[in-house]
């Protein structure tokens, strides 16, 4: 037997030792809960492909926010579903649209809850694309530059309604700069921007598109969202958003993109969020419902994985459940 015998297991032999050397801890303060708001009263419409999640009218949304606050969840990410859609996505930039209304109500009821508003046109456009559409020859293209103005207008209305953080998810080039400029010009210079900096064209968004009623009516989003074969491009996108004034950055989705989270955290010293998206939620929920996986342990393992990769914040539909589970975990030190 060679000497010494290396025994990494020495520090794994009981819970106290394991806790002592644990490097990554998931905390409730790391979690952001996405919520869907729609017009009406006493509406809670379940989203079939996202068991446990619903579209809510503002009254129900407020009750949910109070619950999240009582669990210690620091922030929500808000999406709106408008009553009508048109080719300009006017419901997004309407001062009295569903999101500004909801933000005003939440800030009155739960002033300490951080409200992050997603900024995009896709929930509001009749064609379901994230920007304006123009015809080039026989093809339809997303018209980048004229879209910027509408995104900036949307962001400004959200900020004026009281949103604490603006999160553009559209992936148009130059949108962070356009939003920053507009916010600054209208006395919202203190409102931070969390940019969906590296957002990949992912099949894992499909339950969300049911939730937000936003599937593209033709084509796909590959012309503006990123190709998942590329990692360097993600770092370039992040650099550009930081240069344009992003205060925080996001990687999306999370589970199949842990390498991007890791590299981004190594390269950029800026708060980093990852989005554990709808399809990632749906697959664990479905397996748990079938009894094939244990929900609590698999969810916590995945969320810790995202933190270990380098995420400071995790946007997840599991936020509420995870907050509850984290409270129930027995104290790690017996004298606590
Ligand atoms: C809007 C947007 C999407 C998601 C967040 N913001 C959908 C998309 O880009 O198609 C997806 C979130 C999720 O799947 O949970 N652009």
Helices and strands, in N-to-C order? Answer: HEEEHEHHEEEHEHEHHEHEHHEH
> Share of helix among residues?
25-40%
Bound molecules: ligand PBG
Please report which band the strand proportion falls in: under 5%, 5-15%, 15-25%, 25-35%, 35-45% or over 45%. Answer: 15-25%
Q: Report the CATH C-level class.
A: Alpha Beta
Structural class: alpha/beta
- Number of helices in the DSSP assignment: 12
Q: Identify the CATH architecture.
A: Alpha-Beta Barrel
End-to-end separation: 41 Å
Radius of gyration: 21 Å
The beta-strand count equals 12
Count of all domains: 1
Major sheet attributes: 10 strands, mixed
CATH T-level fold name: TIM Barrel
CATH superfamily: Aldolase class I
> Mean pLDDT score, rounded?
95
Poorly predicted tracts of residues? 331-336
Shape field: globular
Key terms:
ten-stranded mixed beta sheet; 336 residues; 12 strands; 18% strand; globular; binds ligand PBG; two-stranded antiparallel sheet; TIM Barrel; alpha/beta; 12 helices; disordered C terminus
Description:
The protein is α/β, with parallel strands linked by helices and 336 residues long. The protein contains 12 helices and 12 strands. The chain has helices at residues 15-20, 58-70, 90-93, 98-109, 144-161, 175-185, 206-211, 232-244, 258-267, 278-289, 295-309, 319-328; strands at residues 31-38, 44-46, 54-56, 75-81, 114-119, 132-136, 139-143, 165-168, 194-199, 248-252, 272-276, 313-316. The strands form 2 sheets. Strands 1, 2, 3, 4, 5, 8, 9, 10, 11 and 12 form a 10-stranded mixed sheet that branches. Strands 6-7 form a two-stranded antiparallel ribbon. Helix 2 (58-70) packs across helix 4. The radius of gyration is 21 Å and the shape is globular. It starts with 14 loop residues before the first helix and ends in an 8-residue tail after the last helix. Residues 331-336 have low confidence and may be disordered. Bound molecules: ligand PBG.
